[in-house]
Specification:
Beta-lactamase; globular; alpha+beta; single chain; two-stranded antiparallel ribbon; six-stranded antiparallel β-sheet
């Protein structure tokens, strides 16, 4: 039995999250060269956090659309945390962060670039010989990070099988319906989790340590993130109290693409330190704010998700969805305001899910 990975429920929800948050960037000129956004002023950022508006943005249990919601708003203007519905009364409880994991992965890779262990122009075929078909054109580390690799998204996999990262990449490269990568001088930005499975494999090949070890050594321990970790292969239970009743994961082990667990305080601290430049040297730090050519999906050259909200506020961070949670962590570049949210949807209507988290973002920023 086979199934298209790009059509699995988690990937559909994740794609919807990303699309809704970055549609406001669609007005970018199609041929614009890579450019750096200046640090925005407090355009559109309210002076004070409004608890009533934030509480209302989480919704009510009676709407039948969400089992619960959590939001944590911070920054120089104040702080607010709250929950709604059948989730832990403790907004600091842990949850599966889904594709927010990609921010950790790209940070580790950029640190390795800064150390001279590899370069952004290094082809993944050189780092991982035999992983991709030999006749494919070279795909660079930079293209993987910014989702401009052109790799196909379709995959053939058995939902009852257990895959290693290499096995999962093979379900793409050997799937008849996947086709070959998009090639050319201006490859469009296509969000693709396979890019980050490959980056996780690159981390392990270059360092000779596990991906989990490098994330812990380089980010988790230095920042004192007490509830952030990469689960072991086959580890399904959360190690700390969960934000909501857990659902068993149904997709392949998402690992460096979307498998991490964290909580709101840890995510707020991680993104804050990343945007402050505490994790990367200047040459790599600037990539966090540069959009590549044809950045229709709103991901920077450093793998950060960028969006401009309707009132003009520019935010940076990442959204994600896995194991019953739909999450995000975003902040203004000057860190005047930050937001971590996690929703537990009952609905499968992507429009309703998007409406809820965009309502929370509007109230937060």
């Amino acid at each position: 039995m086979t199934k298209s990975l790009s059509r699995s429920p988690r990937w559909i929800a994740l794609a919807a999250v990303c699309a809704a948050l970055v549609t406001v960037t669609a007005a970018l000129p199609a041929g614009a060269a890579a450019r750096q956004h200046p640090a925005p002023a407090a355009l559109g950022v309210p002076e004070r956090i409004d608890p009533a508006v934030l509480r209302a943005s989480l919704g009510t249990p009676g709407d039948g659309l969400f089992a619960g919601a959590m939001a944590r708003v911070g920054g120089r203007d104040g702080r607010w945390t709250g929950t709604m519905g059948a989730v832990s009364a403790d907004p600091d409880a842990s949850f599966r962060i889904g594709s927010v994991t990609k921010l950790f992965t790209s940070t580790v890779v950029l640190q390795l670039v800064a150390e001279g262990r590899l370069s952004l122009d290094t082809p993944v075929q050189r780092l991982l010989p035999g992983t991709l078909p030999a006749h494919w054109q070279p795909i660079t580390v930079a293209q993987l990070i910014s989702h401009t690799s052109g790799l196909p998204r379709a995959a053939c996999w058995d939902p009852h099988a257990v895959y290693t990262p290499a096995d999962l990449v093979r379900t793409v490269t050997e799937c008849p319906e996947a086709g070959e990568p998009i090639t050319g001088p201006d490859i469009p930005q296509v969000y693709n989790g396979v890019n980050y499975f490959l980056l996780g494999m690159v981390v392990e090949k270059v360092t000779h340590h596990s991906y989990a070890h490098e994330v812990s050594r380089r980010i988790v321990r230095p920042l004192g993130l007490r509830h952030t970790y990469v689960p072991a292969w086959g580890e399904t239970a959360l190690r700390a109290p969960a934000l909501a009743p857990q659902l068993p994961p149904t997709d392949p082990w998402p690992w460096a693409e979307g498998g991490m667990v964290s909580d709101a305080p840890d995510l707020e601290r991680f993104l804050g330190q990343l945007l402050r430049g505490r994790l990367l040297p200047p040459a790599q730090q600037k990539l966090l704010f540069e959009l590549p050519r044809h950045a229709e999906r709103g991901f920077t050259r450093g793998g950060v998700q960028y969006a401009k909200l309707p009132d003009g506020t520019e935010v940076y961070g990442k959204s994600g969805s896995y194991g019953g949670y739909t999450n995000g962590v975003f902040a203004t570049r000057d860190l005047r305001r930050s937001l971590v949210y996690s929703l537990v949807p009952l609905t499968t209507d992507d429009r309703e899910i998007a409406k809820r988290y965009l309502s929370i973002a509007d109230a937060a920023f």
